[in-house]
Amino acid sequence: KMDDDDDDIPQLSSHTLAALQEFYLEQQQREGMKTSQGFNQYSIGSIEEDWQLSQFWYSDETASCLANEAVVAAGKGGRIACVSAPSVYQKLKEQDGKDFSVCILEYDRRFSVYGEEFIFYDYNHPLNLPENLLPHSFDIVIADPPYLSEECLKKTAETIKYLTKGKVLLCTGAIMEEQAAKLLGVKICKFIPKHSRNLANEFRCYVNYASGLD
């Protein structure tokens, strides 16, 4: 009777099994490479993009450029907030030991691996922030609203205005230029940000201070 029951258990075809084994092997090799390269948990790509959350990581060069700009703008001992801009946060953390502090406000809880610097953030509730995140306590806020919509920019702008002492570095689509100027008083920069995967929409940076991005 037991033997009859065993026949009901679905068996994977040899082709599927081989494909699965290949997948696991590749995964193990990737993990092995990370370890052998002295893998940095802050490297861009250490947490993979989730397109369902409208995540598109910057290219390495763009993330470095924006991180360096934020450090200069924040000044010695400055505080930097990255709102929905995890790849800039990761680049900032790679500059270990530099004289600034940084936190990441992000909806994706995978970034909670970064400990106390991670703050869960949902742009739909722009001021639903921890009590210890005091108003106007950051020298610069760098933000990349997840969606190209007026509503998303408007709500993210509320968060930015709450957090910043004044300086704002915004990354969003070129089509948002008018709205960005109206909501945050920012102007478009000459610097063109790039993503690790090309986006269909033209993407730009905006600032409200004299920056190195021009």
From TrEMBL:
Keywords, sorted A to Z: Cytoplasm, Methyltransferase, Transferase
Catalytic activity: L-lysyl-[protein] + 3 S-adenosyl-L-methionine = N(6),N(6),N(6)-trimethyl-L-lysyl-[protein] + 3 S-adenosyl-L-homocysteine + 3 H(+)
GO biological process: methylation
Cellular-component GO terms for this entry: cytoplasm
Localization terms from the record: Cytoplasm
Xref: PANTHER family: EEF1A LYSINE METHYLTRANSFERASE 1
Listed name of the protein: EFMT1 methyltransferase
Organism: Anhinga anhinga (Anhinga)
Gene: Eef1akmt1
